């Protein structure tokens, strides 16, 4: 199942056309996106049994919002691909490096994002969305708590994030308005040939700058859900940015950053593509 946010309303994407959930379910499910995750199992069952003769309406990608709009918890993981840890000059972690992005940074899969400074960087990431409350779940059960997967960009202001002598500020530096684009769809794991090994990448002005596979994650989806739930109760609709592969601008020589007019394309095979342009300080 492909779940989308079309103009603020939850919809199913069936063959590229949108079926409005509240209308097709005659009000059984919410007309807002985020509450759908509170009834995820029921919603899945309803969607799976929906009459194949129900047809949707055409839509364009510019009409889509984030498939998760206001999670109560928005986690992110640092240094979770081997090559990215190497390019950052850091040892491989023994346990996941966890921080938070604040939910006010969420935006949709297309559009313009303001740059607060001239040291803003890209990080293509697989994002996991939780579909059931999870506490102390085992790795072997973890996928049962996952509603689906989507594409994310963990946009990062590097000066605030890491410039000494100030303390590192991962959460603030990655939570400016628009710094957490999500979309274009939430895809349930059964739609993907292998949800643990998906091609992920990003292009800056048509140049491929990141390209990897989620099979190279140091801590995969199941390990992350198990690890996070060993400390925190994961709630339906929570989202987890799982880390970025190598190819960030900060690690390049010379370093590169997003500029006024930069076009960033972020994709995961089988899930979809996001397209953003940037506005803001040119120097
Ligand atoms: Zn990241």
Q: What would the principal axes of the Cα set say about the shape?
A: globular
Task: Give the helices and strands as they follow along the chain.
Answer: EEEHHEEHEEEEEEEHHEEEHEEE
Name every ligand kind in the structure.
zinc ion
Low-confidence segments: none
Largest sheet features:
11 strands, mixed
Structural class: alpha+beta
Please report which band the strand proportion falls in: under 5%, 5-15%, 15-25%, 25-35%, 35-45% or over 45%: 25-35%
Spatial gap, N to C terminus: 44 Å
Oligomeric organization of the protein chains:
single chain
Tally the beta strands.
18
**Number of helices, counting only DSSP H or I runs of 4 residues or more:** 6
Radius of gyration: 18 Å
Give the averaged pLDDT, no decimals: 96
- The percent range for helix content is 10-25%
Task: Give an account of the 3D structure.
With 283 residues, this protein is of the alpha+beta class. The chain has helices at 21-24, 40-48, 82-87, 158-162, 170-173, 221-229; strands at 2-6, 9-14, 17-20, 64-65, 74-78, 97-100, 106-107, 110-114, 120-121, 124-130, 146-153, 156-157, 180-187, 199-204, 207-213, 239-241, 263-268, 272-279. Helices cover 13% and strands 32% of the residues. Strand 2 (9-14) and strand 3 (17-20) form a beta hairpin. The chain is globular. The termini are far apart. The mean pLDDT is 96. Bound molecules: zinc ion (ZN). Zinc ion binds next to loops.
């Amino acid at each position: 199942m492909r779940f989308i946010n079309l103009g603020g309303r939850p919809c199913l994407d069936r063959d590229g056309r949108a079926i409005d959930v509240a209308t097709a379910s005659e009000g059984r499910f919410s007309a807002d996106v985020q509450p759908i995750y509170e009834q995820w199992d029921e919603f899945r069952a309803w969607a799976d049994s929906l009459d194949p003769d129900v047809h949707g309406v055409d839509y364009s990608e510019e009409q889509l919002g984030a498939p998760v709009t206001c999670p109560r918890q928005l986690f992110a993981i640092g240094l979770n691909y081997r090559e990215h840890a190497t390019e950052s000059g850091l040892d491989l972690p023994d346990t996941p490096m966890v921080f938070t992005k604040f939910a006010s940074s969420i935006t949709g899969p297309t559009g313009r994002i303001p740059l607060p400074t001239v040291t803003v960087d890209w990080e293509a990431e697989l994002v996991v969305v939780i579909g059931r409350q999870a506490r102390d779940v085992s790795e072997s059960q973890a996928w049962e708590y996952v509603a689906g997967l989507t594409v994310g960009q963990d946009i990062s202001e590097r000066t605030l994030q890491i410039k000494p002598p100030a303390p590192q500020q991962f959460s603030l530096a990655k939570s400016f308005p628009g710094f957490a684009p999500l979309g274009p769809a939430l895809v349930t794991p059964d739609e993907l040939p292998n949800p643990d090994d998906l091609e992920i990448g990003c292009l800056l002005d048509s140049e491929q700058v990141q390209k990897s596979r989620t099979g190279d994650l140091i801590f995969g989806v199941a390990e992350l859900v198990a690890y996070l739930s060993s400390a925190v109760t994961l709630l339906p609709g929570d989202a987890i940015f799982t880390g970025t592969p190598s190819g960030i601008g900060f690690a390049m020589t010379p370093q590169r950053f997003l500029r006024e007019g930069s076009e960033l394309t972020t994709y995961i095979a089988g899930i979809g593509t996001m397209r953003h342009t940037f506005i803001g300080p040119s120097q």
